Amino acid sequence: TFQAISHPMADLLSEVDGGRLLVWRAIRAIADGDAKAGGLISLAGWWNADAAARTVAQALHTFGGYGLTTEYDVHLYNLRAKAWPLVWGDPQLLIEEAGRRLYAGEATVLPDAGDVPVDFDLGDEARAMVAEIDAFFEKHVTDEMRKDFHYSWEGYNPRINKMLADARLLFLGWPKEMGGRGVTPYAKLAAMDAFERHGYNNPAHNVAAMIGAVIHRFGSDEVKRDVLDRMLSGEVICSLGYSEPASGSDVFAAQCKATPDGNGWRIDGTKMFTSGANIADYVLMLTRTNPDLPKHKGLTMFMVPLKAEGVTIQPVHTFQDERTNITFYDGVKIPDSYRLGAVDEGVRTMSAGLELEHGGSFAKV
C-alpha cells in the first residue's frame, strides 16, 4: 500500500496545514490583544520553517533522481523552503524567542492586525462541555487514580469508564437517538482537549465510539442489545481485528475465515495488533467468507466475543511502552445476529468504520 511514501507525505501535509492555522492563530491573537501573541508569532515562524524544510526533503526523495534535475519545479520549492526562513536568521532561534515571550515576559512590538475574519473561539457549548468535564474529574477522580493513567490501553479504568457513562460523558458526538449527547464538532473537540489535559486520553473510548457507530448502522437488534447498549452504559469495551500476520496494513487481504455453522458462523484464524484485546469484551473483526472472490470481495464483518471458547490472546510488547496482542481463533462460534452488514460485503461495512476513524473519532480536527 506504499505506506513508506504515503504516510510521511500525509503527515507533512497535515503539518503544513497546521502551520497555516498557527499563522492565523497568531494574527487572531494580535487582533484580540492576547498576551501570547508575540510568542505565537515566533512559534508560527519556527513551525513553518521546520515543516517546509522537511516537506521538500521528503518530496525530493519521493521524486527520486528526477527531484535533482531542473526539468521539474521541485528544486524551486526546495530553494524557497530553505532560503526564505533565513531572511530572519536561524529559524531554531525562534523557538527560544517563543519561550522567552511566552514564559519569561519578554515584550515585543506588535503590528495592527486589521479586520481578522478567522475566529478560534469554539463557542458557549464547548465552554460548557469543558466545565462539565473539569467538574467530573474534580469530583470523581482521585490522585491515586491519576497515577495509573496511561496513553495506551493499559490506562483503561473500568470504574472511571462507568462513571463517565453515568454522567453521559462517554459518547458526546453520538446523536441523541443513539443515546449520545449530540454535541457539535466544536464542543467535541473542546471535550477531547479537556480529557487530554486531565491525562485521560485513552484509546478504549475512541475505539468504542467508532465501533458503536458501525453497530448502530449495520447491526441487528440482538447485537445492539448485547454490545451497543452495554457500551453506552460503560459495561463493555471493544477492540479492532483488522490486521493479520501475513497481510499487515493490507487489511483487504484478510484470510481469517468465517464459515457457516448451522444458524451461525465458525471463526478460524489469526489477527495481529489486536490492541486492547486483553481487556476488551468484543472485537470488531474482518473475515474471509468467500475465498473464491477477489480479495476486496468475499469479506464479512462480525462482532466476536473475546471471552468465547476458542479465543487465545498473547501479548506483543513494543518499545513504546505499549502492549498490543496477537489473537488466535480456533473454531469460535457466534450467532448470525453478530454479523454486521451483508455477507461478502464487509468492505462496505469496514469502509464506514475507517471513514469514522480517519474523519474524527481519533483525529482532533
N- and C-termini, Cα separation = 25 Å
Strand content: 15-25%
Q: Measured on Cα atoms, how large is the radius of gyration?
A: 24 Å
Q: DSSP helix count?
A: 11
Q: What's the overall average pLDDT, rounded? A: 92
Overall SS class: alpha+beta
Largest sheet: 4 strands, mixed
Number of strands: 8
CATH homology superfamily name of the largest domain = Butyryl-CoA Dehydrogenase, subunit A, domain 2
Give the overall form.
globular
Total number of distinct structural domains? 3
CATH class of the largest domain: Mainly Beta
Question: How would you describe this protein?
Answer:
The structure is a single chain. The chain has 365 residues and is an alpha+beta fold. The chain folds into three domains: 3-103, Butyryl-CoA Dehydrogenase, subunit A, domain 3, CATH 1.20.140; 124-201, no CATH class; 238-361, Beta Barrel (Butyryl-CoA Dehydrogenase, subunit A, domain 2). The protein contains eleven helices and eight strands. It has helices at 3-32, 37-63, 74-83, 92-103, 124-140, 143-146, 158-166, 185-197, 203-218, 221-232, 346-361, and strands spanning 238-241, 257-261, 264-272, 282-288, 299-305, 311-318, 322-335, 339-340. The strands form two sheets. It has a four-stranded mixed sheet. A hairpin with a 3-residue loop joins strand 6 and strand 7. Helix 1 (3-32) runs antiparallel to helix 2, helix 2 (37-63) packs antiparallel against helix 3 and helix 9 (203-218) packs across helix 11. The protein is globular and about 75 Å long.
